[in-house]
Design brief:
about 20% strand; binds pyridoxal-5'-phosphate; alpha/beta; about 220 residues; single chain
Length: about 220
């Protein structure tokens, strides 16, 4: 399955992030030996352990809700934080990146899904957020783009609608921030719809590592 998805993505110029949360280090290593370098985790503790035990040239992405007091544990090595959703978090990443003499790539998480449980900036807050962050002139954070998730639903019209909303927000943000070029949207159940709607980075877990049954088409 990995080979098929990898081919599907690379043919379309889409970067594939393997979401390895809850999966074993052996499973990660297997993919790594097939050439996969980008992996994503959503828990700081689990990420730190895997980072310590696995090859140092793996690019780790953080995709879960990140508490400010935990930024310091990952700032030294994290390749990209995809779940930035507050100025407070930006300021802490800036501080910890600076202490580590690094510039950290970040994506702003935008909430286009209807569920209350999903984190992220509300689309109505984005303009103000962008102005505030540009005013801060942060030098150790590189805002590379946006990340978002669709509502967990069978109704693909809703999913399509949310992805196209995110794509519109992305275009607007891109016109204001020169470093923005990444639109991270699409998971196992909806990555093809996401790509059809402008995604250039997908985060896929269960379809690659197994767990649940999905049909690849
Ligand atoms: C778990 C997770 C994924 C991957 O989900 P799958 O359905 O297993 O592909 C993608 N993005 C985020 C933010 C996640 O938490």
């Amino acid at each position: 399955m990995f080979e098929e998805i990898n081919k599907f993505c690379s043919q379309r110029g889409v970067q594939l992030i393997a979401v390895s949360k809850t999966h074993s280090q052996e499973a990660i290593l297997q993919l790594y030996h097939k050439g996969q370098v980008d992996f994503a985790e959503n828990k700081v503790q689990e990420l730190i352990q895997k980072h310590e035990n696995l090859p140092s040239d793996i690019h780790w992405h953080f995709i879960g809700h990140l508490q400010t007091n935990k930024v310091k544990y990952i700032a030294g090595f994290i390749a990209m934080i995809q779940s930035v959703d507050s100025l407070k978090l930006c300021l802490e990443i800036e501080k910890q990146a600076s202490l580590n003499h690094r510039v950290i790539d970040c994506l702003l998480q935008v909430k286009v899904a209807k569920e209350d449980s999903k984190y992220g900036l509300d689309p109505s807050e984005i303009d103000e957020f962008i102005e505030e962050i540009l005013d801060l002139k942060l030098t150790h954070i590189n805002i590379r783009g946006l990340m978002g998730m669709s509502t967990f639903t069978e109704d693909m019209d809703i999913v399509r609608e949310e992805f196209s909303q995110l794509k519109m927000i992305f275009e607007k943000v891109k016109s204001k921030i020169p470093t923005v070029g990444i639109l991270s949207m699409g998971m196992s159940s909806d990555y093809q719809i996401a790509i059809a709607n402008g995604s250039n980075m997908v985060r896929i877990g269960s379809l690659i590592f197994g767990d649940r049954n999905y049909n690849f088409s």
